[in-house]
Predict the 3D structure of the following.
Amino acid sequence: MSTIGVLLKKDLMEQARSKKVIILAAVFAFLAIVSPISAKLLPELVKSLSGQSGIVITVPEATFINSIDQFVKNISQLVIFVLIFVVAGAVSDEKTRKTLELVLVKPVSRTSFVLSKFAAYFLTISMSFFASALVCYFYTVSIFESFSLVNFLMVAALTLFYVLLVIAATIFVSTIAKSAAVAGVVGLFSSFVFSSILGLFSATADYSPGCILSHYPELIMKGWDAKFMPPAALSIALIAGFIIGAVVVFRGQEIER
Amino acid sequence: MSAISIRNLSKSFGDFTAVSHLDLEIRENSVFGFLGPNGAGKTTTIRMMVGLIKPSSGSIEIAGSKVAFGEVKTHSSFGYLPEQPSFYGWMSGEEYLRFTAGLFGLSRKEEAQRTKRLLALVDLEAARKKKISTYSNGMKQRLGIAQALMNDPEVLILDEAVSALDPIGRKEVLNIIEELRKDKTIFMSTHILADVDRICDDVAIIDQGKLVIQSPLAVLKEKYASPILKVDFTRDPGAAVPELERSRWVKKVEKSGNQIRIWLQDSEVMESNIPLKALAGFDIGILSYGLTLPETEDLFVELLEKKR
């Protein structure tokens, strides 16, 4: 097995033993099940409350779009915080615990060390995310109506790009920073920038990686449109930039006691 | 051929110079003691040797290959153990050694064989399945030696590897090091000078980042250490000390309980019984009187005092 393979196996084992995988699986499972249920029950709940208070509130019938809406919002408003918390210590924890010392004095390139961190988290998060997305899709179809799986998977893929971008930014900062807390705070700030700030300015709005968080109904209903290409391309470019940046920074870093 | 060659090595952190123009040659298959007071630059030197920090200037060669910061080509020729090694506590000892074997690219068969042999060498067979987080400091240090030996390195670099251990742990680890000296070059920094006396062939002393001396230990003792006269009295000889310190033949006096140790300017004074006559004049009973061989600790103190 190559060195990066050995490191990746170790990082995946560590995620499993430290229960990080369980946390991720639980969060994504919650997301997959709660999103369609809450979309279904929320209008009925509002109706029942309006009946009790004597005020008549007209609530439109819930559709599968409401379920997707819940799924995307839960990702950007809830799950992303858990993910940032989980990955913030990816490199900085190895520095503070000094566990990387005995690894880096072996024939292990620093590039492999950092790449295995990105690969391990990207792999676990992507797999959990897609499993959750598929559960959410089929559950939504079972309680609402059938809609395009392909279009839904495109929404999921663009949402995943946004998630991985925030994760990449967090791991990049984890490589620079001496503490996981700093990486966590900067990771949260990056999620805010990518989901909201870039969308506020006309010059950047079309490229904002977080645009999928508001434009998903269009993609679900009409399918792929060229306007989704710039944010997708920018997300991939930024992810690559954060990975390269982390490698460059880590290669020049002195490991002090 | 030298196993390790350090030439004109310097390291500065801002305005502070931790290591300054250090030159060392360590011969093959020797145990080399790297000594110095706390903050002398020992750990900084070692961390440059193993590629964890970057030298400001100078060069390091290990087993004929030049160490270059950020490159790993020399990393197969040495094993390294710091004072308090940090492991992945969630792994078992056996898992950690297998992980280490993987980093060296060993085959499955070699991995299994070496792991088994090293667990036996460091006496961790019974604890091999236990999580490292449950290991004592001594067990962790033994595991540290095992991981440092996984690639069967020519050079073993130990940074205060026994300093934090209790006497039993220290003895266990030193016994292992003594076993290894047969076919490896061992570079060890320590501030426990009794350990140096026990296992080192050659030593270097550094202070404030600069080399004070490098020499075979025996030569150093013969050449530099003053003869020491050890005298045991029947009662506290405190009153005699100031007068002894003023004597021309005395370099230094140390008192501990009813015993004093006198560093002589020259062992010639023993021929004419000058010390005995002087001691007899204090009217304190003498239980024993004799020259002792200087220990590394005495030598260390003397050389540092001379330099300062």
Observations:
- Chain B has two domains: 2-216, 225-307.
